[in-house]
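Changelog note: in this version the structure field was regenerated for every chain. One regenerated record is shown below for reference.
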Amino acid sequence: MAPVFPLAKLAFLFVKQVARPLSSSIRRKAVRSHFFKEKLCLPPARFYHWCEVRMKMYVMNLGRTGQSSTIPRLSEEAAIELGANLLGEGVIFGIAVAILAYEVSRQKEKEKKKEEAEQAFINNLETRINELTFSSEELDTKVRELTRLSYALQSQLKTKEVPAQ
């Protein structure tokens, strides 16, 4: 179990390294496309900024008063960068979740096949036990029949051997 932590660290580093080029390509796309910028990059970035500032104010005990404090808007450049980073990491996270879901379903299928094989083995054993029980009962019946016949023959022999007086 020792190599688990370094592997997790390596996986985290890999995700960060893959997310960087993805977020840069998203950032370039957001700068060129108005729709991409306005609908996909800026709303999550502004919402994230709002939640982050609100949480910091709450932790510093600034947001608990009855006053409504305004949160300064994020500049468009910073919002585009933050939104691109969020989307890049979201895509990486989505891919990781899809891989994990695939692995879970594959493991469940493997476990199901294993259980089916075990059940088939148990059914085969039960069938063989039933067949052996039937064969044993059949042999017992034949032994009883042969025993009855041998007693009958013995009694016939005794009656024939007895001299007539």
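Spot check on this record: The radius of gyration is 41 Å. The chain has one domain: 4-161.
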